[in-house]
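=== Given protein ===
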Amino acid sequence: MFSYPKYKKKIYFSKMHGLSNDFMVVNCINQDFHPTSITIKELSNRYTGIGFDQLLLVEKTHNSLFDFNYRIFNANGNEVEQCGNGARCFGLFLLLKQLTNKEKISVSTKKRRLIIYFINNNLIKVNMEEPDFKLDNIELSKNILCKNFSVNILNDSLTCSIVSIGNPHCVITVQNIKNAPVNIIGNTIEKKSIFLQGINVGFMQIINRNYIKLRVYERDVGETQSCGTGACAAVAVGIAKNLLANKVKVDLLGGTLIIEWKGLGHPLYMIGPAQHVYDGYIYI
């Protein structure tokens, strides 16, 4: 009978998704798991690994203000600041694994505090804190003094809006997202030297004041089926420009989110589903 070498470590995980944005979730509270970027790349490979958009780690917190620590890694091994769809899956994971019995929990991310509310078994609401238009928290190679700026792409000038939802987003309003060259423009903007750590790029089509359609190019990943923080960023920009109401339905390729925001000085809320796919283990 074949046996794995003793240096291999058995790691238990869950595969989850939020509107088809998929994750490998690992409980690091009772497992010693410290993956390198090479390991994450191998695990994220959809042909030879588990396959996922992001790796989510559940960790203990040493701060009494929080219940857990939440870490996010993109498929290429880079740690990122935030993931909205991941936050909902993170919350559902805690329930399924009986790591909490609270109706709401507070978790710390790389740069923000999130409050996760459990509405029912797979519908979860997240307080994403207030969107940041000041740009102080976005690493830029030069100062941008206004919310809007222009970039020249494909011999055309595009007007973009920048906002941070704990991670950086560039939002572009388009007439029809079906025709938007998401990967070409997204990749070009992400690689712009002005964005030192890259940036996510959202393409928003406004249907009416309560309804938008959205496609998102995520940095390090490319276009994904959905992006929770991208939905938050697009709605925040729309409300800040008085183009949208305070409660907006967002249709992404993978499904629908509800975003609520009363405007400056208030936190933004994201409401949507999370799904558990399967549990497994792998030898590292």
